[in-house]
Amino acid sequence: MALGPDNFNLTIALDDIFCFQGDDIDDILDEASEPYLWTFMVKVDGEGFIQQGNSLVGSPIYFFGPGSHGNLGGSLTRGTRQIPESLGRWSTSLKPIPISLPASLGGQQLTAIPGTIMCAAVLMEENLTPDSAVEAAHTSVQNLIVGTVSGAISSIGLAGVAADAEAEAVIDASHGKTTSMATAAQLVIQRRLRPIQDLFAVAAPANAVVTILGNLGIDGFIGSAIDSDKPMGAFARIFSQQELAATTEMVWYWGRGTPINLSATMSNMPEWAYNIGGRAYAHHSFVRRDPPGAKRLQVSCSTKRTTKKGEKRIVGIGGHDDGNVWWMTRKDAADAILKGERSFFVLGPEGHSVEVGAVRAGSFQDQSWPDFVQTAPDQDGRNNLISLPDCDQADTVEIWY
After folding, report:
1. Number of other CB atoms surrounding residue 271 within 10 Å
2. What are the start-end ranges of the E strands in 45-183?
3. Contact at 8 Å (CB) between 46 and 18?
4. Are 369 and 353 in contact, with CB atoms under 8 Å apart?
5. Angle between helix 181-198 and 131-153 (nearest 10)
6. Nearest alpha carbon to residue 56 among 93, 92, 96, 94
7. pTM higher than 0.85
8. Tens digit of each residue's pLDDT (9 = 90 or more) over 330-388
9. What's the rounded Cα separation, in Å, for the pair 299 and 241?
């Protein structure tokens, strides 16, 4: 199946933890805390499930990060700590589950249940709980999630999903809203996943996790002793295929992108203790078309960014050649100029050609690079590229990768 909104790659990334005030910090001692993180992600889609008669058979796809002491890099007093990719970053794919009539009735596809992903995390504070008990508790929570998912999904009958989806569509129609069967079916599946999310995303998430771990019977892990490890907070979020398909990855030279930004407070104290941040996005973007083969090109537009001082800087240049729109990053244009592969010009205020040159802007470890493009001095007295209109997005191509 070709990549597109019905079949795409994606990334869910829990990027960082910001510590306002750790559990071991007080007004007297100001000691560093030792947070560590448990991450759990679950995917229900056409990779793990297929239709078999009147049932869905298969299993969800899981991502469980390592849950050991110190997995966030050890002690932390205040500030930001990056979450290792092995702990918080899952790159996977998402595709719907096709639902068809039985072969005896023609076998044609009726609809598809869009994919769904759930992401959850629990932030823990290390005290004196033995490593072995922490590993056992982490494994028990994984088993709890797998068991809950299996109970909610494995026995789903398609007739039941179809009936619930039809009821969903009828209710929406009574309120003047049109809902497709595919969308209604995904809402049904999301409700089946809700018990998993509710393990974490409740009004007092840290207390909920304490209850869960306590019920697991991990000796010495949860209790009233001051030296026991304890949960600091939890985060959970369910993503639908439709909302992920609508995202795009950030493109550095535009400063644009439409990822789902994740941010949640994780705290069991009156003050904010920690905040978790991250992104979720499809491997989907809009890229500029390749420039034409002509060696000399007129620049008629430019892409700029504004610095903190309010100064404009060139990010890229573009134009038209025989009706074709083209665009290049600042670096690529400068490279082409310095290698003698292309030349560029701008029409000056009085209609004369002004050459575009490249300037090497810096070096690092004895390696210099071309960083800027600018026009030669003329009557304007400025870099003519700044004065050009902004390049629009008419020259972009949508890609899924």
Report:
1. 8
2. 49-52, 55-58, 61-64, 79-82, 89-94, 97-100, 109-113, 116-125
3. no
4. no
5. 150
6. 96
7. no
8. 888 888 888 899 999 988 777 788 888 887 665 444 444 445 677 655 444 556 788 88
9. 40
